[in-house]
Design goal:
single chain, 423 residues, alpha+beta, four-stranded mixed β-sheet, four-stranded antiparallel β-sheet, 14% strand, globular
């Protein structure tokens, strides 16, 4: 953190109830230059086609122009370019907004300004898009909490089209509880109202915050901090009979209870709570799960951050919580590498081996947690089969026999399954 960020964090801690009216003066030319360095240079371009290299051609002048426009109120937020990427099921898509490069720089500068302020306010149960916090920490917190309770009842919470349905009025009210600097509030309002450009058609931004924008994760955390985290900790938990905890990563959350009656009461009130702020819980994906081991009744499972959580026996015969890769994520990972092998089978074999190995290691880097070693080994096996399949189709005649294929994998083995995280 810079000296200015440390100062903001100290003030946020000293005055936990104060709304700050003077923050924008921290943003100067050096602040924007730092924001530029923190912005990805290889990202997809926005509607103006400007790349990072284009912005750097007249760097000092561009920084000064951007600074003056932001401070004076003359800055006009351009619409984001909307693209659609396939979801895990392969049948539906997720809309992603792509801002212009200089818009990314300015958003990054505002995020760096607000982050130390809200880091003091955000609760320990929130893990998504926060400095020093990761998905693996969230997964470990779920494991620790449920293990200490011996299981319980879990509400697997899914918000329908969250980023597209954020209510601007509620978000503005939440922000102004801590930020009343006119420059910052005006900039955020412009980004929210900028709208999206899709297939040549402009759509006004009347609600939502485009998923993919630099500032969107921070705004999402602010929104759900007040809608869910603070409400659950301060209003719900004191009224419960048993133990309970929540873990949230962006808009993915689980609520766990040791008492079934508590879980049912919260499950009943959750849709009303979210509807009050313009949000809708997914009718089929949001569900209450009996996550408790029993000899006669099998415990249900739930998915969180790419892992299916289930009860299984340890080597000593005790019931423990285990995690394995969600089936859809597993299948999607294999299919992506198989598609790459198909379209790049003309490359030299050593080059293919190097890239496929890196892709497998990338999969292991996230999914390599305790109790998931079997799924990792199966992933390696399926990717190896897919690679060999497309190597054998390098020509009309079979390029490899199965014996030659096995020999190849012995000479150039794929990375072995490894546990990368102890969570």
């Amino acid at each position: 953190m810079s000296t200015k960020q440390v100062r903001i964090a100290a003030l946020a801690e000293r005055f936990p109830q104060r709304a700050f009216t003077s923050l924008a003066h921290h943003i100067d030319a050096q602040w924007l230059k730092t924001a530029y360095l923190m912005t990805r240079r290889d990202g997809v371009v926005g509607i103006d086609g400007q790349t990072a290299d284009d912005f750097a051609h007249d760097f000092e002048a561009n920084i000064q122009r951007l600074l003056e426009a932001a401070k004076s109120g003359r800055y006009r937020a351009p619409p984001v370019r909307r693209v659609h990427i396939p979801k895990g099921d392969g049948r539906t898509t997720r809309p992603i907004g792509i801002p212009t490069f200089e818009d990314k720089v300015l958003q990054r500068a505002v995020v760096a300004l607000l982050e130390p302020l809200y880091e003091h306010d955000f609760m320990a149960c929130s893990y998504g898009f926060r400095p020093g916090r990761s998905a693996h920490q969230a997964i470990k917190t779920v494991w620790d909490g449920l293990s200490s309770m011996g299981g319980g009842w879990v509400i697997d919470l899914d918000i329908q089209a969250f980023f597209d349905t954020i209510d601007h009025q509620h978000l503005s009210a939440f922000l102004q509880q801590r930020v009343k600097d006119g420059v910052i509030i005006r900039l955020i309002g412009k980004w929210l109202k900028a709208g999206v450009l899709e297939a040549g058609q402009w759509q006004k931004g009347e609600m939502g915050s485009p998923q993919g924008g630099v500032i969107s994760p921070l705004l999402a955390n602010v929104y759900l901090h007040y809608v869910l985290d603070e409400w659950f900790e301060k209003d719900v938990k004191p009224r419960l009979q048993g133990r309970a905890f929540s873990v949230r990563f962006a808009d993915d959350a689980v609520l766990a209870f040791s008492n079934e009656a508590d879980a049912r009461k919260v499950m009943e009130v959750l849709p009303k709570r979210f509807a009050r702020f313009g949000l809708t819980l997914h009718p089929t994906k949001t569900r209450m799960v009996r996550f408790r081991p029993h000899r006669e009744q099998r415990a249900e499972t739930f998915d969180f951050l790419g892992f299916t959580h289930y009860w299984g026996k340890s080597r000593r015969g005790r019931w423990i919580i285990k995690r394995k890769t969600v089936k859809d994520r597993f299948r999607r990972g294999v299919n992506r590498i198989a598609q790459w092998c198909r379209w790049n089978r003309h490359l030299p074999i050593h080059e293919q081996h190097r890239i496929v190995s890196r892709k497998i290691q990338g999969h292991f880097a996230y999914y390599g947690i305790r109790s998931n070693i079997r799924a990792l080994g199966r992933f390696r096996y399926c990717v190896g089969n897919a690679w060999i399949k497309w190597l054998r189709r390098r020509s009309q005649r079979a390029y490899f026999s199965w014996e030659k294929s096995k020999s190849l994998l012995r000479r150039m083995p794929l990375p072995r399954a490894r546990i990368m995280h102890s969570c």
